[in-house]
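Researcher: Batch entry, complex prediction.
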Amino acid sequence: KAGVTQTPRYLIKTRGQQVTLSCSPISGHRSVSWYQQTPGQGLQFLFEYFSETQRNKGNFPGRFSGRQFSNSRSEMNVSTLELGDSALYLCASSRGQGGPYEQYFGPGTRLTVT
Amino acid sequence: GEDVEQSLFLSVREGDSSVINCTYTDSSSTYLYWYKQEPGAGLQLLTYIFSNMDMKQDQRLTVLLNKKDKHLSLRIADTQTGDSAIYFCAERPLSGGYNKLIFGAGTRLAVHP
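Model: Structure tokens for the complex:
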């Protein structure tokens, strides 16, 4: 079974631009969560989607948004990029929500903002 | 409150056992996870335990949970150079029924000959 895939793997953008990252969960998984990883702040929860609905959101500004499609694939968007948005963005997929579900992570998208 | 703490660095000799420790603060029932991250990679799920369990063993990995002290440990038996990585402890509080994980800062494990 294929794992979680994220595209693109690497991205370089300039300040003020916007970016869209994509995550395809493991087949049969309906929950997708996004995390930001930086050396200074570590791993921080961005948001979580289940059945195309955002179920939970972390403490990030409104420039960070996401959505989930009917096939469970998810995208996150960051508008008006800032230098501090440079990070590894990870998505995790899970079969369901709230139960004894394992959460599997993708390889991440490394975003560099210049 | 939500907080997970780990020591930042551990150095062990190849063949010895490694013990990585973690403390969490959420008082509700919770799942506790251990992930491994190698350089330039995502997070690899190693194992997880529910907060009503005391111990879980999976090949070279043993997880011990002290609920009273909210202390979790991961023991790696016969540590190999391939085990060198950053290990993250994560908590998933069940309140709210969501999948949000709260991570510790990670413990960097260095295995030397």
